[in-house]
Specification:
The protein is of the alpha/beta class. The protein has one domain: Phosphopantoate/pantothenate synthetase (Rossmann fold, 3-Layer(aba) Sandwich), CATH 3.40.50.12640. It contains ten helices and eight strands. The protein has a six-stranded parallel beta sheet with strand order 3-2-1-6-7-8, sandwiched between helices. Helix 1 packs across helix 4, helix 3 packs across helix 9 and helix 4 packs across helix 5. The protein is globular. The protein starts with 12 loop residues before the first helix and ends with a helix. The structure holds adenosine-5'-triphosphate (ATP). The site of adenosine-5'-triphosphate (ATP) has 18 residues, from helix 2 and helix 8.
Length: 248
């Protein structure tokens, strides 16, 4: 965060910090042209949610963490925005889960792939993390998707049973669910196709979710029986929260 000068007491400090991370990532060639638009949509929903983790999102986070800890082959899928905003936290989470991460981007170009790999390798080195990074040499395709965005690895996404997909697009989310995987979506928009398609959808901001997962990691026991979880109800709750926020 070289030249980030905002004062932490600024009321919009967190929002400015995330924007700055994206600006830096853009300069390093990590992002697609639509990255800022996707972020802006997220910001708008976050504003409506009060820029906080609402109780149903907290529940969804714990449920998702339980699923990841109980998984046989968990994996974290990373796109450009996820690496830019929460690369450090997501790699730390992968280290805790002892699982790989896989770069899986919508607009795949060699330049973007190498910029993302470089960023992740830097984080690994700086934090002394031992996490396998997949995606550089895809050897499989996600069934039902066309074009380069279907590319993935057999040993990573294909063979995983529980997959965390922050900021995923609806199509790919649907294709992963159709493969029988438990798909954990992080998306501030409770109306997005990904949010509706996901097995567990966390309607919360990515960096808050990653932080919460790291904080709660040790308190979630692997043997804990999963409670009945209703994803549609979690989405309805987020919408109710937005609708009633201003009448409180
Ligand atoms: P879908 O295909 O699922 O309907 P979309 O086309 O609306 O998705 P994309 O542009 O593929 O959306 O992805 C952006 C999504 O990610 C948006 O729904 C946005 O709300 C969400 N988003 C953006 N930034 C964040 C963030 N930091 N944390 C959580 N969600 C975010």
């Amino acid at each position: 965060m070289s030249d980030f000068a905002a004062d932490p007491s600024h009321p919009r400090y967190q929002s400015l910090l995330l924007r700055h991370r994206l600006e830096e990532a853009e300069k390093q060639g990590m992002l697609a042209g639509s990255a800022m638009i996707a972020h802006g949509r997220g910001e708008a929903y976050d504003y409506l949610l009060g820029e906080q983790t609402i109780p149903s999102a907290h529940e969804a986070t714990l449920h998702a963490l339980r699923a990841l800890k109980n998984a046989e082959r968990p994996i974290i899928s990373l796109n450009g925005n996820a690496v830019a905003l929460a690369g450090e936290q997501l790699l730390a989470l992968a280290q805790q889960l002892k699982c790989p991460v896989e770069i899986n981007i919508f607009y795949r170009t060699p330049k973007r792939m190498s910029a993302l790999l470089e960023r992740l390798e830097t984080i690994k080195k700086e934090r002394s993390l031992d996490v396998e990074i997949l995606g550089a040499s895809p050897n499989a395709r996600i069934p039902g998707l066309k074009g380069p965005r279907a590319k993935c690895t057999k040993e990573g996404i294909i063979d995983s049973d529980v997959i965390l997909v922050p900021l995923e697009d609806g199509d790919r989310c649907e294709a992963l669910v159709a493969m029988g995987k438990t798909v954990i979506v992080i998306d501030l928009n409770p109306l997005s196709r990904s949010a509706k398609m996901g097995t567990i959808t966390i309607v919360d901001e990515l960096t808050r979710v990653a932080e919460n997962m790291l904080l709660q990691f040790d308190s979630i026991k692997m043997s804990e029986v999963s409670k009945t979880y209703d994803n549609e109800e979690a989405l309805r709750d987020a919408l109710r929260h937005i609708a009633t926020k201003f009448s409180d």
